[in-house]
């Protein structure tokens, strides 16, 4: 019965394809997370040293890691929604800066929602929750996120333009090996 074997093979190939896609997306998520975790933990260390808050360091690092997870997911959602795609034909500087601004605004919006929910859960009504959001703190965080996103999107755009394999070879292979492959 040859007709019965075909759907099984098709289902198996769909599962294998789905597993490959999930593995690729997890790898991309992990890379974004590690990049953001490095920067956000650095800022947590700087803040801790600046304010002499040595007693809450684990909380600061934990919050930085959770923030890195959330922002990494926001980036993937934004890329899935194809944010910034229309500028990809422009020079890399324009494309990178545009995406850095656009995704910084997206993260800013998520931070506002996060703060409102936090104040709402602590007993404020919706109006009070919006009133208690510290915009100066959110703007400072957004500037930090933008400064983090500039090199991030520059490297992503460069990798997209060169091709992922060539880009990774340039960074992780010896120059003679990378030049031979280019």
| Low-confidence segments | none
List SSEs in N-to-C order. HHHHHHH
Shape: globular
Number of strands: 0
SSE class: mainly alpha
Helix proportion of residues, in percent?
over 70%
Strand residue percentage = under 5%
Please describe the biggest sheet, giving its number of strands, its sense, and whether it closes into a barrel.
none
Provide an overview of this structure.
This protein has helices at about 1-50, 55-80, 90-120, 125-130, 135-160, 165-170, 175-180. The protein is an all-alpha fold. It is globular. The termini are far apart.
Q: Keyphrases for this structure?
A:
mainly alpha; 182 residues; 0% strand; 7 helices
List the helices and strands and how they pair.
Layout: H1 2-51, H2 57-80, H3 92-121, H4 126-131, H5 135-162, H6 164-172, H7 175-181
Helix pairs in contact: 1-2, 2-3, 3-5, 5-6, 6-7
Question: Gist?
Answer:
With 182 residues, this protein is an all-alpha fold. The protein has helices spanning 2-51, 57-80, 92-121, 126-131, 135-162, 164-172, 175-181. The chain has 2 domains: 1-81; 82-182, no CATH class.
């Amino acid at each position: 019965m040859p007709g019965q074997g075909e759907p099984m093979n098709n289902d198996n190939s769909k599962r294998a394809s789905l597993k490959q896609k999930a593995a690729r997306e997890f790898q991309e998520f992990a890379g974004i997370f590690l990049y953001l975790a490095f920067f956000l933990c650095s800022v947590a260390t700087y803040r801790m040293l600046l304010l002499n808050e040595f007693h809450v360091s684990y909380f600061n690092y934990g919050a930085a890691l959770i923030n890195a997870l959330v922002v990494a997911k926001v980036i993937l959602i934004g890329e899935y929604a194809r944010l910034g795609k229309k500028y990809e034909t422009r020079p890399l500087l324009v494309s990178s800066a545009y995406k850095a601004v656009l995704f910084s605004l997206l993260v800013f919006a998520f931070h506002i929602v996060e703060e409102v929910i936090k104040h709402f859960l602590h007993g404020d009504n919706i109006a009070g929750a919006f009133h208690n959001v510290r915009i100066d703190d959110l703007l400072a965080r957004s500037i930090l996120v933008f400064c983090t996103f500039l090199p991030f999107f520059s490297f992503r755009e460069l990798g997209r333009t060169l091709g992922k394999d060539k880009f990774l070879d340039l960074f992780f292979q010896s120059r003679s090996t990378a030049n031979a492959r280019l």
